Amino acid sequence: MMFFIVPLVAVASPLLAFDMSQSTRCVAIPNQMKVCKDVGYSEMRLPNFLGHSNLGEVVLRSEDWKDLLQTGCHPQAQVFLCSIIAPICLDTFIQPCRSLCVAVRDSCAPVLDCQGHPWPEAFDCDRFPAEEDMCLTPHGKFNYFLKDLPKPVCQNCPSVETSPPMKTVLSAFCHYDFAVTAKLHRLRHSTGEPEFKVEGRVEFIRQGPLLPYDTQHLLREWLLINLQCASSLVRPGRSQLYVLTGSVKPNGAVALTHLFPWHKKDSGIALATRRWKHHRC
Questions:
Q1: Residues of CATH 1.10.2000.10 domain(s) within the chain?
Q2: Cis (ω within 30 of 0) for the bond into 47?
Q3: Paired strand residues for 5
Q4: CA dihedral for 24, 26, 32, 38, sign (positive or negative)
Q5: CA-based diameter of the chain, in Å?
Q6: Where in the chain is the domain with CATH 2.40.50?
Q7: Triad 161, 166, 170: Cα angle to 5°
Q8: Model confidence over 142-175: pLDDT tens digits?
Q9: Nearest to residue 159, comparing CAs of 233, 262, 267?
Q10: For the packed helices 55-62 and 77-85, what is the interaxial angle rounded to 10 degrees?
Q11: Cα–Cα distance measured from residue 207 to residue 227, given in angstroms and rounded to the nearest whole number
Q12: Which parts of the chain sit beneath pLDDT 50?
């Protein structure tokens, strides 16, 4: 499991309405509870730290967090969430440390805000124990990687230009840090919930600071974070090839700047991609 357990010095105060003196039981984490199925342990304690004692209710409520976890907003978001809704079954109660809550909140609250949701009151970090109590602490190595890896951010919808002239496309290649071609696909769900993926390979026109092995995943995270914008780019059940340009800030934040839908008739985009290798900005 990707966390540390700090030894107990003081008894932690109860979280929300959960009473640590009440009797609990251990149950297997069910297969349908996908957000916690591979968290690193196989049994959970009921009632959980939100006071849910019915396994069906826990599974249902866990689905509310699937979309946030898919954005990759923090590498320990799953550990934090599952330690509350599906706490590990040990001889003592183990809550997330306040420091773990703060780390996840600082990365994931902006994503929730981008989608129109506040950080839940139930996850107020002041409710969790400090690190001198027995609790789950953040894993230090993740903080190092977070500083270096490019990460998508919540942003206003970038400019979308259909059938641009070659000069416009070349200018975008010159003025921004990277340019790629990617086919964006929006799945059609009977529930109406949007789900996106990047089909096939991402082709680099200008790589810049992007990582070849991570860019496809990064673009999917951008779509999931910026759901409202993404929903306007691709219709349900359809795919669309785009040329995308963007910038990467010193802190690793990735923002898309221009999107050019690439249709067969778009000679300007085709000419720009062919001439880019020999183009001088």
A1: 4-147
A2: yes
A3: 136
A4: positive
A5: 72
A6: 149-278
A7: 90
A8: 454 455 678 899 999 999 999 999 999 999 999 9
A9: 233
A10: 160
A11: 25
A12: 1-18, 142, 144-145
> Residues, the chain, total?
281
CATH number assigned to the domain covering 149-278? 2.40.50
- Taking the alpha carbons of 40, 46, 52, 53 in that order, is the dihedral positive or negative? positive
Q: Which CATH class is domain 4-147?
A: mainly alpha
Compute the distance between CA of residue 137 and CA of residue 140 in angstroms, rounded to an integer.
Answer: 9
pLDDT at 190: 63
Predicted pLDDT at 147: 55
Using H for helix, E for strand and C for coil, what is the string for the chain? CCCEECCCCCCCCCCCCCCCCCCCEEEECCCCCHHHCCCCCCEEEECCCCCCCCHHHHHHHHHHHHHHHHCCCCCCHHHHHHHHHCCECCCCCCEECHHHHHHHHHHHHHHHHHCCCCCCHHHCHHHCCCCCCCEEECCHHHHHHHHHCCEECCCCCCEECCCCCHHHHHHHHHHCCEEEEEEEEEECCCCCCCEEEEEEEEEEEECCCCCCCCHHHHHHHHHHHCHHHHHHHCCCCCEEEEEEEEEECCCCEEEEEEEEECCCCCHHHHHHHHHHHHCCC
Residue reference for tokens 């800030």:
249
Amino acid at 180: V
- Report the predicted TM-score, pTM, of the whole model to 2 decimal places: 0.77
